[in-house]
Amino acid sequence: MKKSITLFFLLATITLVSGQSSVINKQKVPVTKDSIKKAKVVIEIQEKKIDSLVAVLEVFKPYKKQAHASYYADKFTGKKTSSGSRFDNNKYTAAHKKLPFGTKVRVTNEVNGKSVVVEVTDRGPFVKSREIDLSKRAFMEIASNKGSGGMLVTIEVMVD
C-alpha cells in the first residue's frame, strides 16, 4: 500500500538589524536596535482525497475516459445482482460489463471534477452506448445536474 503523506517543515529565522553593526576598523560599534523576527513553522501535508467508500489512500490506474454513466432505477432496489448480493440504491455500487466483481473503481464527473469510489457488484448496463451504471446515491453525489439521467465520466481502477 502506497501512502504518500509528506511533511515539509520550514523553519526560518530572519534577523533584521537596523543601524551599524559588526566591526569597523577593528572597533566595535554599538548596535542601536535589534529586531529579531522568527518565521512561523509551516507544516504542509500533501494528501490524496479520501473517497466515500475507501478510507485509506489508494492508487488508481486509468481505465477509460469520456465513458457514459447512468444510474439504476428505483425498481431494482432489493433485487439480486449478478454477484449474488442484494442491490441497494443507497450504497456505493456499480454495474460494469467486463470488470470483475469486487473491483473498486473511482468514477469522476468530467464536467465538475467530483469523484466517487464504487464497487462493481453487477453486470450491465445493457445499452450499447453506456459504460457503467452507478447506484443512485453515487450518481447524485457527483452529478452537476441532479435531473439528468447520464453524464460523461472518467473511470479509474484501484490498483492493489
From TrEMBL:
EC numbers: 4.2.2.-
Tree of life domain:
Bacteria
List the keywords (alphabetical): Cell wall biogenesis/degradation, Lyase, Signal
Keyword Nucleus on this protein?
no
Keyword Phosphoprotein among UniProt keywords: no
Where in the numbering of this chain does the RlpA-like protein double-psi beta-barrel domain appear?
A: 66-145
The record's GO molecular-function terms, alphabetically, read:
lytic endotransglycosylase activity
InterPro entries xrefs: RlpA, RlpA-like_DPBB, RlpA-like_sf, RplA
Q: Which residues form the signal peptide?
A: 1-19
Q: Name one GO biological process term.
A: peptidoglycan metabolic process
Report any Pfam family annotated for this entry.
DPBB_1
Q: Which family does it belong to?
A: Belongs to the RlpA family.
Query: What HAMAP family does the entry give?
Result: RlpA
Q: What does this protein do?
A: Lytic transglycosylase with a strong preference for naked glycan strands that lack stem peptides.
**Name of this chain's protein:** Probable endolytic peptidoglycan transglycosylase RlpA
